[in-house]
């Protein structure tokens, strides 16, 4: 994932910062507890496609 792209990407819902989890290939929004997948190097920033993080999963 390009560092410049990571600097400008924000959560599409709350406009908050995202945490990049390289090993899982996800961008995490702590505030909304959503994980946005990265497919072929392109973040999928759609709420309907995001994975909801369970309450017991560390962020």
Write the CATH fold name: N-terminal domain of TfIIb
Q: Please trace the helix and strand order, writing H or E for each element.
A: HEEEEE
Percent helix range? 10-25%
Query: Which outline best applies?
Result: globular
Radius of gyration: 11 Å
How many angstroms does the end-to-end distance come to?
A: 19 Å
Q: With helices defined by DSSP (H or I, 4 residues minimum), what is the helix count?
A: 1
Q: What average pLDDT do the residues reach?
A: 94
Instruction: Return the structural class.
Output: mainly beta
The largest sheet is:
5 strands, antiparallel
Strand fraction band? Answer: 25-35%
> Uncertain runs with pLDDT below 50, 5 residues or more?
none
Q: Given this structure, which CATH class is correct?
A: Mainly Beta
The CATH architecture: Single Sheet
Total number of beta strands: 5
* Total tally of structural domains: 1
Explain this structure to me?
By secondary structure, the protein is mostly beta strands. The chain has a single domain, classed as Single Sheet (N-terminal domain of TfIIb), CATH 2.20.25. 10% of the residues lie in helices and 29% in strands. It contains 1 helix and 5 strands, in the order αβββββ. Strands 1, 2, 3, 4 and 5 form a 5-stranded antiparallel beta sheet that branches. The longest helix has 6 residues, at 3-8.
